[in-house]
Amino acid sequence: MKRSNFKVRKKNDRVSLTEDIRNHVIYSLSKEVKDASEWDAGKALALALRDRLVERMIETRDRYRRVKAKRMYYFSIEYLLGRCLGNNLCNMEILDLCEDIFKDLGYDLDEVRASERDPALGNGGLGRLAACFLDSLATLDLPGCGYGIHYEYGLFRQSIHNGYQKELADYWMKEGMPLQVARPDQSVIVPLYGRVESAATPSGDYLPMWVDWDDIIGVPYDIPVVGYGGKTVNYLRLFAARASENFDMDIFNHGDYIRAVQRKIESEMVSKVLYPTESVSFGKELRLVQEYFLVACGLRDITRRFLAQNKNFEEFADYVAIQLNDTHPALTVVELMRYLVDERRIEWDKAWEITRATCAYTNHTLLPEALELWSVSLIEKVLPRHLQIIYEINSRFLKKVESKYPADNEKLRRMSLICEDGTKKVRMANLAVVGSHSVNGVSELHSELVKTRLFPDFYEFAPQKFNNKTNGVTPRRWMLKANPALAALLTDTLGKGWITDLNELHKLEEHINDSEFRARFMEAKRTNKIKLGNFINSTLDINIPPDSIFDIQAKRIHEYKRQLLNVLHVIHLYLELVDNDVEPSCSRAFLFAGKAAPGYWEAKQIIKLIHSVAKVINNDPRAEGLLKVAFLPDYRVSLAEKIVPACDVSEQISTAGTEASGTGNMKFAMNGALTVGTYDGANIEMLEEVGQDNFYLFGLKQEEVEKALREGSYHPREIYNHSPEIRQVFTALLENRFSPDEPDLFRWLVDKLLTDNEQYMHLADFKSYSEAQKRIDRDYAEKEIWAAKAILNTARMGKFSTDRTMLEYAEDIWKIKAVK
Ligand code: 26V
């Protein structure tokens, strides 16, 4: 390959940008400048931005090639990107300039930005984490790119009818996606289905032949990922499935034209839609094909790039690291083995060494129902050769286990890649652990539980591969872009260093006794609260006084996250007020947002409950000025960017031991919210950073939860019998005070929460939760004290930047270095 030295030509000054916007209006949109609408101008700006990104993307690729850098490929079935235009302008440091240019042209850039649809190619935490990682990799000049699926439909949009969630299709590319770069020339062919024929080599070795397969084409689309400062531009490569010309040639040849076309269309289904997080998606053939499609496209792309620089696969892991974002891409282990053994004819042991040195696996959840199991018969149908390889990996692995623990059949049964209870299934987590040199959890507590609860046998067998990498979030999107009021104050006070070194925020502590600084900090918060208040008023017609506490729980709706505990407490406050004449000492707005998986009945009922409670409280004149409740529909990245900066109290109240890390908790705290939270996930590390006085801790510890549930000693009815508060709340629910037209609507939840050993132990934590909330009321009333606590939360969140997280992965797992 020829050495090149690509030079970036496009300038970021007013004249060049204006010129390029005008040119794109004419040459790309085919309009006269005087006829361009605001929307046209936005599109032209995006294209001018794209020119700059593409140049820098080429320059970055050049730079990596010149030093033959080892690269990391992040394999993830989800990326929750959020809007790109503002984020890119921000990272290129031309947002203010472009706002100005737009003003001169007579347009409003804010409106253009607000009209961009969120690419929502993810469900929640796991997908958003992947997006934050990409931002940090580029900002740190690390050679790391994302690989994923170019879904045509992202996560469903949520609309609310009569308090119930309805799902709508999310056709996110309706207005096009000007920033992406299609690369049909780099398409790959992915085989699937068919069967394996055994043959032998001339020397008599077993020679498997995968024959009669169908194929799908994977067409890559690159979304440029620009780091802060605009120097490095990595990419997120998303593959779209296209029917191949060969697909089912057989049927064509037999003359059944319509059936053949139908099969072609079916093959394009693979990248049609993102599955919402639900246990029922395991077992769906299309989902398995999606997981394989990502892995197969990604690996073909990587091996082609490797071969362009190097022919010696023994060195593969010196140049390539692959991070498996959960078990969804666990087939990487198998596909890489198949490629090395069947296609490159590398002997098994060597291939296995290369594979394990390449792959690393991150676990993101302890919930047993979330662990992927795929039936052997389904894998055999879709990927017959891969199933053979899985069995081979398993038999060799179990031999090693057996030699270490002779005659321990129970251990062999537990560690096997195949689960033999009932119909045979492949345990994807075991496959990912065995095929990786690193297994990490996403917070200290979670990583401990990964070792002790999830994979104790594997931990005992190979302790050195288990490690922790505490999550983070990118301060570029979650502070600089989402919270311009606070960002301006921080830069004014500290300079710009905090944007790329979040530990700089520690220096805010020097200003904590400066009453003017405190006033400015709280003024920024107030500005954000007024903005969110206006948004809520205009969309939901609910009036929220800006001086009330903005108490927010925004995340997917799930029983383990315990939105129910929050609602029970809201009901309690309301009943105290109207039945017991006890007024809260501060006015409070309880805000909720989050989607429920379409098939998750309880989660959907929780949404209905929140709406029902809101309706009663918001319409009761006795609660006016004291309590408000609102559910903000269609939670997504762009809505989070409005919510997070306006928060006073962040609800992080999962049952201890259930939330792997949480990342919303970090976003809220770095924007000056105080957390009311359990000793769970990354809350624990946040508490360590900010100190007990600046965090409202409550509830049982993980060991206490585990012990109670193990011994079966949790009897919620006893708690109920001793708690007049809980009885009052449940009585109100059973008397249908929040469902006057639908008797018994919420009986299910009273029954469920009173059931012995209720999994998430809601009632066990009710009292200490309510006490923590009382402390919040008291502290909030002391304005200066609250301001100091809020500032300390921002000042002490430096650890939770994904810059820190990415540097740890780069050093400990991937062994990649910055290429500046
Ligand atoms: C999966 C499933 C599948 C079936 C039914 C219910 C269910 C519930 C949860 C999940 C978790 C999917 C993985 C995930 O998103 N984990 C989240 O990852 C974040 C980033 O590491 C972390 O901050 C969150 O705590 C964790 O829940």
Automatic annotation (TrEMBL):
Subcellular location: Cytoplasm
Cross-referenced InterPro entries: Glycg_phsphrylas (IPR011833), Glyco_trans_35 (IPR000811), Pyridoxal_P_attach_site (IPR035090)
GO molecular function, one term: pyridoxal phosphate binding
A Gene Ontology cellular-component term: cytoplasm
Catalytic activity: [(1->4)-alpha-D-glucosyl](n) + phosphate = [(1->4)-alpha-D-glucosyl](n-1) + alpha-D-glucose 1-phosphate
Cofactor(s) required for function per UniProt: pyridoxal 5'-phosphate
Single GO BP term: glycogen catabolic process
EC number: 2.4.1.1
A Pfam family recorded for this sequence: Phosphorylase
Keyword annotations from UniProtKB, A to Z: Allosteric enzyme, Carbohydrate metabolism, Cytoplasm, Glycosyltransferase, Pyridoxal phosphate, Transferase
Enzyme superclass (EC): transferase
Protein name in UniProt: Alpha-1,4 glucan phosphorylase
Organism: Maridesulfovibrio salexigens (strain ATCC 14822 / DSM 2638 / NCIMB 8403 / VKM B-1763) (Desulfovibrio salexigens)
